[in-house]
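Researcher: I'd like a structural prediction for the single chain below. Treat it as a standalone chain; there are no partners to consider.
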Amino acid sequence: MIKTDILIIGAGPVGLFTVFEAGLLKLRCHLVDALPQPGGQLSEIYPKKPIYDIPGYPSILAGELVDNLMEQIAPFKPGFTLGERAESIEKVGDKMYRLTTNRGTQIEAPVICIAAGLGSFEPRKPPIDNLASFEDSGVEYIIRDPEVYRKKRVVVAGGGDSALDWTIILADIADEVTLIHRRESFRGALDSVEKVHDLAKAGKINLLTNAQAVGLRGNGKLTDIVIKQKETGEVIKSTDHFIPLFGLSPKLGPIADWGLTIEKNAIVVDTADYSTGVPGIYAIGDINTYPGKLKLILCGFHEGTLAVQSAFKYIYPDQKLSFKYTTVNGVNGFE
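Model: Treating it as a single chain, here is the predicted structure.
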């Protein structure tokens, strides 16, 4: 039996930073994640993708951010149960929960902090009849290493930030990049939209709007893609890779059965401390919802900070919480 002060479900960036904030209050943490390594989507889906909205870093690779967070929390010696899914929780006494994973591991803690990102997820796939035939032989839904596409011909489909960002990145790596989107306008950041249009004008990428992929061809490996465009009809384009980036379809999984208030696949929280309404259980990061919610890593950092302040008061109601600045004490002063 593992015992700790705060059990964090989800070892993504928000969960990892919460360990640091808890450590400053001398609260021990143990993290559970279904993925085999810390970092959440940053490690699993886009470790080589630059992130631009982390304070103090004009640009940092997602994988590098995870490495830095792991270094930051190392002094507080958190525990990890990786490759196991949080399956069930039960109350086992006054201010004590027991979580059991799908592999039978049990962890007890007075506080549970759910930082599970989007929960379990799967990529949204375009309605192409033979799509599955080319998965892992030319069709990919996630870009883990952009170097795989060096000197290759790539067709990216989508109109959100992920499609725009990867098109910009691959423009300097692949031999040929084509971005197709079924509408004229894009959903992504205006700066990224402008960059994509500039690349198209400069002839560095092909941009096809009002277009969508309707067929794939190849003999065991993708060689051609059939694209239907509103103005010109169907065209066949040779390609090595087709990457549809239509986002992820989130599913809460077992969390949905834990008696929490759920709204549109997210956990409703109180913004005073990101508590769920169930005493001792908090939800932070992309997994929660509240008026004005923004699904940004930096917002999750803020939510985790306030949650552990509240958790300390919940665990030790008779102790006075004296908040101290790390610039005064340093990290070692909190170990």
